[in-house]
Amino acid sequence: MKKIGAITVGQAPRVDVTPDIEPLLRGITLVQRGALDGMTKEELKAIEPEEGDYVLVSRLKDGTSVKMAEKHILPRIQKIITELNEEGMEAILMLCTGQFPHFESKVPLFYPQVLLQYFAEAVIGEKTLGVLTPDESQFPQSIQRWKENGVKNVLVEAVSPYTEADKVPEAAKRLKDKGADMIVLDCIGYSEAMKQALHEAVDIPAILGRTVAARFIAELYNEGKEL
Question: CB of 120 within 8 A of CB of 216?
C-alpha cells in the first residue's frame, strides 16, 4: 500500500477532512502531520497575523479554528516535509489551499491551490469567479492570487468552514447575486456537505478544494483501482 504524506497548517489529524477524501484514495495510506502540532496556547498567540501578513486559517485538534501568519510556520512545514521524505512517502499533499513558497522535497509535493488554479482557469474563461474564503482579512490576498493566476473577474465572500458552516449557502447566494458564474470553496475546511448545501441554494458550478486534490492523488497513485 502506498503512503502519501498529508500536511495541515493546523493540527493533525484532520478528522474533518478525511471522511471526504479517504474513499477516493483506496489503496493509499495518508500519513498526517500538522504545522501546529504540540504548540501551546501561548505559542499559538505569538503567530497570529499582523497587518500585511499572508493569512492562513486552519483547524486545531480540539475542533476550534485558528488564524496565523504564514511566515511563522514555514520552517515547521519544511521540517515536516523533510521528515516525511525520510519516512519513505511516495508523495506529499498540502492540506491547505493557501499559496506557499518553494519547499525542498525529494518526492512530489502537491499544492491544492495550484490544482484549483488550473482547474478554475480551464473553465472560467471571461466569466466571473466567486471565491469563498474563511476570513475577511484574506480578501486582498485572495483577489490578488486569483487574478495573478489568470482569472480576470473575481468576487470574494467570507464564511468560515469551522464556525459558520450553516452560512455557506447564504454566502454563495451573495456571490451569485453579485454576478458569479462559478464558485471555488477556497479552503480545505470546506466539506462535501457544505458543497451540497451550496448547490441546493444556487444553481451554478462549484469546486471543492479537498476533493480536487484527492482525485488528483488518486489518479496518480491508486494503482488502477476504480475511483
Answer: no
Residue-by-residue DSSP string for 152-172? SEEEEEE--TTT-GGGHHHHH
CA distance 201 to 47: 36
Instruction: Tell me the pLDDT tens digit for each residue of 166-189.
Output: 999 999 999 999 999 999 999 999
Cα–Cα dist 192/207, whole Å: 10
- Give CA–CA dist 54/68, Å, rounded: 8
For the entire predicted model, the pTM comes to 0.93
**224 — pLDDT class (breaks 50, 70, 90):** low
Architecture of domain 114-208: 3-Layer(aba) Sandwich (3.40)
Degrees, nearest 5: CA angle 183-189-194:
55
Give the residue among 183, 181, 154 at the shortest CA–CA distance from 171.
183
Provide CB contacts within 8 A for 187, sequence distance 6+: 57, 96, 97, 132, 133, 134, 161, 209
Q: Which residue has 522535497 as its cell numbers?
A: 105
Instruction: Could you please state the CATH topology (level 3) that the domain comprising 2-111+212-221 is classified under.
Output: Rossmann fold (3.40.50)
Average pLDDT over residues 23-41: 95
Domain boundaries, the chain: 2-111+212-221, 114-208
